[in-house]
Amino acid sequence: MTREQIIAAQTAWGQGIVNIGQIHADGGDYQAATADHIDTFYAYKEGEALF
User: Fold this and answer.
1) Please, are residues 33 and 20 in contact by the beta-carbon 8 Å criterion?
2) Is residue 30 part of a domain?
3) 5, 17, 24, 47: which could form a disulfide with 1 (CB 3.0–4.6 Å)?
4) pLDDT tens, 19-42?
């Protein structure tokens, strides 16, 4: 990955977290937004996650 790709991925991840918070504050479906964020950035469906 290039430096630019890494920065873009980090920025998108951070914006997703802020978006979840905003949806929660607005009384929206933050659980669905969280599930989408996890699916987008963590790819758990691809196999085991090792942290």
Assistant:
1) yes
2) yes
3) 5
4) 999 999 999 999 999 999 999 998
